[in-house]
Design a protein that fits this description.
With about 160 residues, the protein is an alpha+beta fold. It has seven helices and four strands. Strands 2-1-3-4 form a four-stranded mixed beta sheet, with helices on one face. The protein is elongated and about 55 Å long. It starts with 12 loop residues before the first helix and ends with a helix. The model has no long low-confidence stretch (mean pLDDT about 90). The structure holds FE2/S2 (inorganic) cluster. The site of FE2/S2 (inorganic) cluster (FES) has 12 residues, from helix 5. FE2/S2 (inorganic) cluster (FES) binds near residues 89 and 92.
Length: about 160
């Protein structure tokens, strides 16, 4: 199997300075970690380990604690989003109609895992909850485009439109 590659961290000095300003703003506030993580995600677009490490060192909070918070709340992401954000609905209606197999097919096609971004920054894949289009199950979205009543053998053709 090919090695799965994800986009490398490309944070700038300016982003780091902005993050440290945010940390200083909340430093003496109780429960500062969550608002800092929110603002950090706005600065970087996601919360990679490199960013968590800066927060950990500045606030003297363990990496394990920060990682636990980042992975607990679904609004935080460990990975950047791609130019094309693929969402595969794993809600009940979609799942029983085969969205799990469609997700596997997408992963194989792009050689990527769920929750990651491709090295060239073009694609990211997320498994989502019900998006309210159960009548079209199984459903995937690619940015604003919605594809419903999908079968596995349509996946390659759909993805080829975005490559
Ligand atoms: S379960 Fe997929 S849209 Fe509702």
């Amino acid at each position: 199997m090919n090695e799965v590659k994800v986009a490398p961290f490309k944070g700038t000095k300016e982003q780091e300075a902005e993050l440290k300003t945010v940390i200083d703003k909340y430093r003496d506030t109780n429960g500062a970690l969550i608002p800092i993580l929110h603002e950090a995600q706005e600065i970087y677009g996601y919360l990679p380990l490199e960013v968590q490490k800066i927060i950990s060192e500045e606030l003297n909070i363990s990496m394990a604690e920060i990682y636990g918070v980042v992975t607990f709340y679904t609004q935080f992401s460990l990975y950047p989003k791609g130019e094309y954000k693929i969402g595969v609905c794993l809600g009940t209606a979609c799942y029983v109609k085969g969205s799990g197999e469609i997700l596997e097919k997408i992963k194989r096609n792009l050689n990527m895992e769920v929750g990651t971004c491709s090295e060239d920054g073009r694609f990211s894949i997320d498994a989502t909850r019900c998006i309210g289009a159960c009548g079209l199950a199984p459903v995937i979205t690619i940015n604003e485009d919605v594809y419903g009543k999908l079968t596995e053998d349509q996946v390659d053709e759909i993805l080829s439109k975005y490559k």
